[in-house]
Design goal:
CATH architecture of the largest domain: Beta Barrel
Order of helices and strands: HHHHEEEEEEEHEHEEEEEEE
Shape: elongated
Length: about 350
Amino acid sequence: MKLGLFQALHLLFILSISFSSINVGADDLEDFLMDAPLSKESILIDIEEDVGAKFEIVDELTKRKKILEESLIIPPKYDRPRTVGKPVPFTAQLKKGSILRNLDTGKPFRLKKPLVVKAEQVVLGSNRVFILNKSGEKRYETQAVNAVNIEETVRLNPDINPLIVYTDKPKFGSIDQELKFSHFFSYHIESIRSDYYATIFRGERQSATGNILEAKSYFLTDRFPIHIGFNVNAHFGFWEDPELGTVTWRGLFIGPSVMRSFWQKPDGRWNFHLSAFKSVYHESEKAPDKHMYSTLGLQSEIEKEFNTSYGPVTLGLSYRWSRSSIKDSTEYLENEALKGQVIGFGAYMSYRYNWSY
C-alpha cells in the first residue's frame, strides 16, 4: 500500500523525536502527564534514597540472621534416630513395711502386709515406681525395691494368692549366702526384792541394789520376724543390813534369747527381748559365811532404739525373775532357806552393733 505525502512526513517526524536526546524536567513531566490519572508523588521515586533503604533492610536482616544462628542449639547428628520407650504397667507385690507416698497430699503410709497392685516405673530404669488404682491413675509413689515384679507369674497362673510372699529373683542365678548378726551391749541398774537373801543370812532388810553387764547376739533373717540368739550377763551387787552389815553377791549367767522389732521409723524402732538364763557361777558372801547357788530365771526387756551419729543407742526397762537353790554353804541352813526366788526391776542403756560374714 502506498503512503500519501502527508502521512510520510508525519512518520518521519515521529522517528526523529524517538532517536533524539530529550531532557525532561520534573515540571515538564508534570505538564506532559497533566492529563494522566496518576499523581506526581505516585510515580516519582528518588533512586538513591530507594536503593539506600533497600541496603539498610538487607544489612538488618543479615544481622538478625547471625544473632538467630548463634542462639540456636544445633543437636548433633546421629546415624540412627534415638527412641525413648514408654514405661509399661506391670503386676507387682508390695513388700510388708513398704513406705508409700500419696501423690495428691504428699502424706506417707506404711503397709501392714504384702499387697498385689499395678505399678509403673517413673521412667525406664528408675529406682521409683508409681502405684496405680483400678482406673489406671497414678495414686502413690514408692521405691522400686518395694515392688516385686510378678508379671511372669501372673501370666503362668492368673489366679494369684495374695497370701503368698514373693521375693526378687537373685541376679545371675546366684544366692546371697551372707550371714548377718546383731549384738547388744547393755548396762543395767536394778532394784532387787531380796527376801531370799534376808532369810538365808537372817537379816532384816528386804531390798537391795544390783548391777548387770549384759551381751546379747542375734542371727538376723528376713524370713522370720523373730530373731533367735543367746545372752550372757554378769550380776554383782551389795546389800547393807542394819543387823548383819554388808552382804555381797555375784554371778555369771548364760542362756537363749529372742528379739522382736516393731514400730520401725526412720529415727529408730522399738525392740522386745525375752531371755532365759542359767547360772554358771552364783554366790553370796557375808564374812565369814559364803553360799553357792544353782539359779534359773527369765528376763524380759522393752526398749526404744535411737539412731545417732555414733550408732544405734537404746534405752529400756527390764523385769527379771529367778529361782535359786543352795548347792553349797559354809554354815548350817534350815530347809526353808534352801530354795527361794529373787525379783528385780531395772532400767538400762545399750549399744547395738551389726556385722555380716
